[in-house]
Design a protein that fits this description.
Layout (H helix, E strand, L loop, with lengths): L1 H29 L1 H16 L9 H25 L1
Length: 82
């Protein structure tokens, strides 16, 4: 009986430690600075080649084209509505 109790206490302690680790990981992942860091890394990865560190001009030009196109559309719509 004592061995079973000791074994059960040991399992409970291991479970508590795993839960504590999981909670710590969730808190870290959900922290605003961590989220911002992940997003910045993701955006940099889209515009900079991770292997060479060179800018990905095709992605940059696409983004610039979209921004310029959007500005032109809004400018045209504004003139038409006047």
């Amino acid at each position: 009986m004592s061995d079973e109790l000791s074994e059960l206490e040991h399992e409970i302690q291991e479970t508590r430690e795993r839960l504590a680790t999981t909670i710590d990981q969730l808190l870290y992942r959900s922290h605003p600075k961590t989220i911002v860091g992940r997003e910045v890394t993701s955006i940099k990865g889209h515009y900079v080649d991770a292997g060479t560190g060179e800018p990905r001009t095709d992605n940059i030009l696409r983004t610039v084209g979209i921004v310029v196109g959007t500005i032109v559309v809004f400018a045209v719509l504004r003139r038409v509505t006047r």
